[in-house]
Structure formats: C-alpha cells, structure tokens
Amino acid sequence: xxxxxxxxxxxxxxPGRKARKQKGAEVELAKFLPPATDNSGNKLSxxxxxxxxxxxxxxxxxxxxxxxxxxxxxxxxxRMDGTSAAAEQPSLQKGGKHRGPGEGASRHPQLGCSxxxxxxxxxxxxxxxxGDNEEERLEFSESEGDGDEDAWESMEDDESNEEMxxxxxxxxxxxxxxxxxxxxxxxxxxGREGLSEDDSEEEEERVSGQSKEQEDEEDTDLQLNMEIDxxxxxxxxxxxxxxxxxxxxxxxxxxIHQRIxxxxxxxxxxxxxxxxxxxxxxxxxxxRQDLAAYYSYSDFLLKKLMxxxxxxxxxxxxxxNEVPRPMTLRTNTLKTRRRDLAQxxxxxxxxxxxxxxxxxxxxxxxxxxxxxxxxxxxxxxxxMLQGASSLLPxxxxxxQENERILDMxxxxxxxxxxxxxxxxxxxxxxxxxxxxxxxxxxxGNLHRLGVTNAVLSHCDGRQFPKVLGGFDRVLLDAPxxxxxxISKDPAVKTNKDERDVLRCAHLQKELILSAIDSVNAASExxxxxxxxxxxxxxxxxxxxxxxxxKKRNVRLVPTGLDFGKEGFTRFxxxxxxxxxxxxxxxxxxxxxxxGFFIAKLKKFSNAIPKMQKDEESTLxxxxxxxxxxVAAEPQLKRKKLERLKVTTGQKxxxxxxxxxxxxxxxxxxxxxxxxxxxxxxxQHRVHRNGQ
Amino acid sequence: MRPLTEEETRALxxxxxxYIGENIQLLVDRPDGSYCFRLHKDRVYYVSERILKVATxxxxxxxxxxxxxxxxxTKTQKFRLHVxxxxxxxxxxxxxxxxKPGAEQSFLYGNHVLKSGLGRITxxxxxxxxxxxxxxxxxxLGFGVTAKSTQDCRKVDPMAIVVFHQAxxxxxxxxxxxxx
Lengths: 691, 180
Hints:
Chain A has 691 residues and is an alpha/beta fold. Helix content of chain A is 54%, strand content 9%.
C-alpha cells in the first residue's frame, strides 16, 4: 500500500504542488464518474461531482467514513489542548465534519504555538483547502475498498497522525500564513458550511457555476494532452468519410498534424504500437491522405516521395519545403574579391556570412535593409544571386582555362557565369538554351558580370552534336519536374503527375546522349559531362544516368564534392549500375539547399557502342534511339515520345525503357497533337526562372 | 553575322572616340590575341577570333549573342552605345565624373547628374564631352556627356545639370529585354 504513504508525504509539500495535483485529480475524477451524470440536465459543481462519485463508490465508501470519524475524534482531542485558538475559530469546530483528516491534523501545531507566528504571511501557501484533502482521502478510500481496512485503520491511528503532527510542526502551518482578508473570507465560508450540508452545496454550485466554462476549457485542454500519451487509434473509414463529406467545416489542421505525428510514430515501431487487426497499408494510406491535406500535395507526388524517403525524413522534407532556403550570392571574382564585396555590402546594411568551407565565393545573406538585387554592387556585376545548390554542378564540372565548354541549358546564366569565372574569361563557353525568351536574362547577366568568352545560342539541345561538337566539358542542367525546388515554386506540389515526370525523364535521356556525343573523349584536359537536375525523382536522375551508362562509352567518376548523399543503386524494382553510387543527391532538409542531383561522367571513347542485333530489334522502338538518329529524325522522335506518354498514361506502372518492350507492344493510339511537348518546356521555365 | 562596313566602322569609332579618344587603338590591337567587331542583327559585338570561330558554326537565326555587345545601329544608321560596353569604356576613359553616394541612386534610376551630386570631375573637361560616371568608390556606373565644362561647373547653381545621362548599369534591371 504505497499509496497511503504517498498521500501523507504529499501533504508535507508546498501548495504549488497541491494546486497542480488538484487539477489532475479533478480530471481523474471526471473519468471515474460514470457517464450517467454527464447526461443529467443540471450541471454539477466539482464538489458535487465528488460527492456523487463517493456515493457510487459502494463498499469502500463506508470504510472511508469510518476513517474519517476516527480522525475527527483525534482532532477534537488535539483541540482540547489549545485554549485560545479554539475560541478564535469556532466555525472550524462546527465545520469539522467537512474537514479532512489531514487538515485536522495540520491544526495541531498551530494551536500549540504562540500567536507571534501568525505574522509571517505567504499568500502562496493559501491553497490547502478542505476539498483538497477530501480528495486525497477519497483516493485512498477507493484504493481501500478491497478488504484490508483494519490494517489501514490501525496504522492511521497510532503512527501516521503523529508523523503528520511532527511534520507540520517543522514546516509552517497553513492557517497562520493566510492574509487577514483571506482568513476572514475563510471564516465566513466555513461558517456557512456549518449551517447545513445542503446549503453549502448550493453555494458551491453557485460559485463554481460561474467558472464552469473556464473549467471545461481546461478539461478539454488536458484531455488533448492526454491523447498524446494514449495509443494512436486508426480512425475508421467512416470517420474519414464523414470528414470528407462535410466541406462546410474546413479540416482541422491541428488535428491532422497530431494524427500525422502519431501515425509516423506507430509506423516506426509497427509491431509494438500497431492496433490489432489493422494492416500497415491502412496506416500508410491514412498518413498519405493526411500529409496531402496538411501540406497540400497531390497524391501522386506524395506517393513518389514516400517511396523516396523513410517516414520521419519525409516529414522533415515536406516541412523544409514550406520554408524558403537562405538567400545566397556568389562573388564575381572577375570583378571583385569576396572580402571587398562583403565589406561593401555590410556598409550598405546587409547582414551576411561566408557560405561554407566548400565555397570560396559564396555568401549567405541573413537580412538586408536594402533590396539585395538592386544595389550598385549588384548592378556593377560584383555578385550574382544564386542558390547554393547551383554552385555545386559547376564545381563538379571543374572547368579549366582555355577549354571549350558547352552549357546546354543555361538560363538564367548563373552557372554559365560561374564557369566563365573559373576559367578567368579564357577559352570559349557555348551557352545554349532552347528558349530565346529566357536567353534575354542570360545576355543581361553575362554582360553585367563581365563575361566576354561566351557565345549564346538558342538551339534545341537535342540537336547538339550536329550543331557543334568536340567540347572539352559539357554541363547539362536538364529541364526537370522541379521537385527539389518546391519551396521556390509550390505549384509543383499539385501540377505534376506521372506523365510529366516521364516526359521529363525522356527528354533528359535524349539530352544526356546528345551531351555525351558533344564531348571529345580525346580531349587532353577534359572529356567530362556533368548531369544535374533540380529534381529528386529517381526517374529523372539515377535512371537517366544508368541509361546513359548503357548507351554510351562513359563511366561515372566522383563528383569531387565531399558532401551530399550517394545516389541510389537500387530503387524499388530497379537495379542500377553499382557506380551510380558516386552520384550525389542534395536535399533541402539535410543540406539546407535546394534539392539537387549531380552526376559526373567521363567519356572514354568517341565510338558509339552498337547493340547486338537481336537485342536491338527488341529495344529499338521502345528506348530512345542514339543521338545521331535524334538529330536526323526529330519528327519521328517526337512521335515516339508521344506514344510513350500515352502508353504510360494508360498504365500506372512506369517502365524502364531498356526493358520497356511492352510500351511499343501496346496498340498505338492515334498520334495526338504534337503540341504536347511545349508544356514540358514551359514547366521547366517556371522553376528555372525562380532560380 | 558579318564584319562592319566602312561606313559602320566609322560611325562606331567616332562614337567610341568621344569617350576613350585614341585609346581605341588599344581595343583593336591587343596583346592577348586578335579581336574584332562583328555585326549581328544590327548589334555590334566585340569578340576574339577564337570565340568568333565557334560562333560561325551556329546558324545565324539561332545565334543570340557573342562576346560583348557594344551597341546597336539605329534605323537611321546612327550608332548607339549600350551600357554593356561600359566594361571596355571604363578602363580607357579619358574624362571621368564621380558622383556622391547620395546621387548614385538617382543616376542609376536614369536621371542626369546634378551639380549637387557631383563629387569630382576630370580637369579640363570640355562641354558635351563623353564621360564615364563613377561612384566615389571607383565603381563605374554608366556614361554620359557633360552639360558644362569643368570651369563652368564651379560657378553653376546646385540644381543645374552637369552630366547628361546616356546609359547606366541600372538598365540591366530596367531594360533587360532590350539590351541585345
């Protein structure tokens, strides 16, 4: 019966603790009460409720009363000793019936001592009211109900009371610490209590009725908190249905957030925390639905992301997509030095710091009193506003002086100017972009930054080895679905579907082959291709690289970046070449930069490997053909692309093109509008402009 | 894309001479390889031969820009310098004007330089002489022509214009689409 001892010990402690306990006990009490009382029309005060609970307690109840009587007897005896104090508080004697044993005991020391002590007052100590002790008594009387009453009684009689006396003698007593006005109020109250039980009940009801609402609020709050501790229960399908049916009241985001948290917790330790009879799929389905509602993603994208990340990481990822990345800028070393630039900007009231150890030119801007994109330094070309992640591909490319370099998709020119900067304006950069419109910003940026070694063209990237080839290095920043830069362009959350991703992937495969074909493997210094996207989809990254490895004489080499996560070598049912490990992935939640993928390829032979005859016959139509063919018959290609799109739209399951013979085996629907391609480019523009 | 005609070359050089005088020579004969002017879609580009070689293999209609754009020929065959030429004008400029930090912003928004904003000016600058405008931190901001000679500047009232605005780096933001 450790509980009895607990009760006694708690009485020794300060009122702050008591106060807290009182609240908790109230809530507990509310739980003990059968629901019958809730239905009854008139509201009960907290005391009334307690009494009702007592009444329902049954057998244990009578025992408790016995205890009470015994204790009262003792207190009365104690009071005999005190002479003047008893006269001071006549009401207390009357109200003794209501007082708990603890209170009665607590009075002893006060009565014994002189009045001089009553001077020291701490109002905080006030709250040791009868109700409190009553509650505790109630508690132990409940626990008492079983049968060993006698043991308890005896203990109460001879030992514990003395203990209490001593303790209260040591600590300051309760009554003397009240302010005079409080004492007066107390007397009044206890006097009234003494009149009759019924009266006091009514009074309490009246008083507490006013604070009823507040109490209720507190109750709900507490219950919310308690839900956390409770085991997460998967809501049934009907409940969710109901939520969906009622569009009038918008979904409770707080509730959904809580549910996501609980759900993730359960899923992380599924065997232990699961609810019996519910499958993991149900949990996952609910989680996806909640995440989609909470972060407003399309179901498709969430499914993809769930495949990509473990659950806690997924939530982190989604969360970090809601906040913008820090603003970073790159010093243009063609015109200034980082230290000078930092000083100049600090003088303008910009708060900045070096970007990191890995970059010698980057700066992070924390806040600024001037528009950072319109300072005289910016206009004079001393820096470029550029995300931290877009420095990485150029660092991986590592351009050397006097090389010929191709930047296939260059808008808006940030990476191009960085290349020029690393080459110190020597050699030649061919900056290409398929959209003439977006090249305007490239022209402006390159001139502003003082880049003089660039030629700008707006060819289609896929025509490249035909336009011009034999480059030392090629940077392919391929158009993509933009799933890594959701914080910049939240539209991606909803406007991408399977077809968009596959359309991008297809375009990327064509582009990477033309990029590889544009490189001169015999180059003394180069022969490298850097492929990067601002997407985190495997379809647009590892899959494309793996495809290039199969189709051309290239191998993956380390990117030279010492951070970032390794690329996937296996994903779901796909198995990629083991060297795909040396590619790098960057995530907003781990690196605090835009989601990015970087792969560096080295071309070791200019020859285009020929497929074996039999293999080729099956593969040819489904998989995009080699680049020369692309150049030669773009019309045909487009049709193929169209077909791929349609078929994949029909089947939910995507297929790697290398074994996607079935794609072509599908009955080909009537060739639809060829205009389906521009949207892909347009989408590309949307997120690139954001950069 | 083609080389400039005799006439166009004269128009271009006359304009350049207003700012950099006989330093034009330094633009044409450079120690680090040969440079030349090329006309493409009415724009004049200043490029090295090596870059030119790459650019020639790009179909004309696909070529957007090469090297540095100096300016364009108007429909009446006059030559107009663009702010993009500033990188080459600034180092060779013979006459310079420095504006006070307070007047920097005003100039970058396309306004003329007033006497009150004038920080420094090269001695013996004549009236209507092409000048490059610098900030007090020696950052080139643009170029224009003087409205008053250095002598007149001394006694003119503070609100009088001393440099007419022609081009400033603010155009990179304001007129990005018309730069080329």
